[in-house]
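User: quick one, sequence for these tokens?
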């Protein structure tokens, strides 16, 4: 087995320990990695050798640009829109040229290394899209660790839209029993959408964290050497993330301003007939990656309100994190939009889901929670919610689908079977960015379980 890694952000630290773990258990895996920055280049050159390590050069031009344009699988233009920050403000021509260059580089490394599997860290922008696209073009098996959300743990998808692996099986009796137990527990006391293992008793592995000033110096050097690479927004975010006191003060000021912008103060003011649409955190991989068309969420809001019956209201709630981040123009515009009511952002989302005629989202977890509660839901973008609901709704289908949902009853057996399918592919592993509070990701046991789960997944896919 030959595995190429997508080393986005600080995920290479986790992958470094995965490689060491795989070598300890005597697996015959060959590794290569493409890094989005040079922060971890030296440790991987020492670990793998220089010929198996590449750092993306954002300004490199593709030597075979014409070939890349023809062979790029999917939509290059849609994948460019997945980018959150790195080259978001460049001209259209520069974006296109940079995208072709980045795709050409990862394709070149894959052609040289000839991987059998492409293990993705997190698709946060075009680099992740290009990595997956190159693997698809070259018939390399894509492996994307994917969160099971409220259920906890991860599974391995074969794409960036969270498709369940082909060996998912709802008929396994143990999985059906686990699904039934989870549903009973969730409906009694719903769990959070973000689950991570608490493994404080396990050994903490080396984080390879350089001092802030060293990281800032490295970033500045990279920006200066990259024409058009310096982005004020990127610098702003980096500085604020490393100066939490200043960041929290700014967030507090923005929250005090934004939290006043609503016209429903709580559950007792809800209209009798309403559809619930929770705003998603954006820009973020949960919406940028699978459904960039809906980055402007007013596209979804307009589609829903134009499709819903005239005696219904669309109740919109701000994402709790975005009350700190989003400018107030979004809420002000919503307050002026016919058919829409904005509810106070601290109103429990789960209670809105329980009372709504239908919960609709692009890719948000509220639709998954509605499904787990046996409530009607529709999803406009691909993801785990669409996987468990078993359907994706197009804008043209919305009027009919909304009316069907208003009259429908979700059978418990259907919900249990969908959750059992997820349990049949689930692994009790935490996967995320190193550096979280209490560092659950870089615990030795977690790395060992991930490594074993990854190998098992690859073996189950083998012909």
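Assistant:
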């Amino acid at each position: 087995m030959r595995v190429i890694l997508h080393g986005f952000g600080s995920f290479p630290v986790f992958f470094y320990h995965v490689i060491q773990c795989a070598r300890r258990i005597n697996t015959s895996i060959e590794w290569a990695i493409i890094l989005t920055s040079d922060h971890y280049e030296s440790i991987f050159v020492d670990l793998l050798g220089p010929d198996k390590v590449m750092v993306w050069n954002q300004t490199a031009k593709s030597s075979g640009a014409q070939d890349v344009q023809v062979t790029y699988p999917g939509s290059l233009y849609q994948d460019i829109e997945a980018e959150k920050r790195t080259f978001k403000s460049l001209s259209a021509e520069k974006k296109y040229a940079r995208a072709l260059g980045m795709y050409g580089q990862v394709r070149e490394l894959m052609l040289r290394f000839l991987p059998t599997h492409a293990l993705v860290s997190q698709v946060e922008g075009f680099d992740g899209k290009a990595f997956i696209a190159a693997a698809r073009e070259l018939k390399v098996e894509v492996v994307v660790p994917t969160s099971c959300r409220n259920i906890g743990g991860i599974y391995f998808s074969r794409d960036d839209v969270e498709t369940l692996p082909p060996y998912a099986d709802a008929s396994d009796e143990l999985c059906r029993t686990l699904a039934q137990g989870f549903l009973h527990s969730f409906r009694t006391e719903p769990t959070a959408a973000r689950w991570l293992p608490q493994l404080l008793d396990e050994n903490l592995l080396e984080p390879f964290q350089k001092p802030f000033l060293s990281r800032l110096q490295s970033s500045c050097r990279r920006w200066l050497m990259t024409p058009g690479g310096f982005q004020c927004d990127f610098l702003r975010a980096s500085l604020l993330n490393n100066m939490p006191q200043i960041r929290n003060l700014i967030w507090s000021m923005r929250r005090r301003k934004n939290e006043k912008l609503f016209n429903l103060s709580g559950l007792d003011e809800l209209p009798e007939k309403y559809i619930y649409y929770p705003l998603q955190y954006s820009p973020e991989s949960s919406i940028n990656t699978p459904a960039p068309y809906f980055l402007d969420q007013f596209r979804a809001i307009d589609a829903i309100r134009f499709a819903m019956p005239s005696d219904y209201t669309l109740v919109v709630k701000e994402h709790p994190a975005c009350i700190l981040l989003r400018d107030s123009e979004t809420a002000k515009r919503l307050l002026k939009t016919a058919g829409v009511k904005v509810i106070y952002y601290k109103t429990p989302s789960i209670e809105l889901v329980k009372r709504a005629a239908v919960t609709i989202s692009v890719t948000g977890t509220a639709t998954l929670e509605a499904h787990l509660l046996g409530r009607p839901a529709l999803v406009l973008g691909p993801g785990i919610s669409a996987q468990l609901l078993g359907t994706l709704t197009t804008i043209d289908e919305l009027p009919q689908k909304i009316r069907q949902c208003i009259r429908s009853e979700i059978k418990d057996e259907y919900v249990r079977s969908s959750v059992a399918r997820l349990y049949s592919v689930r692994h009790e592993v935490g996967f995320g960015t190193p550096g979280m509070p209490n560092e659950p990701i870089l615990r030795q046991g977690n790395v060992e379980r991930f490594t074993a789960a990854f190998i098992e997944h690859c073996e189950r896919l083998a012909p």
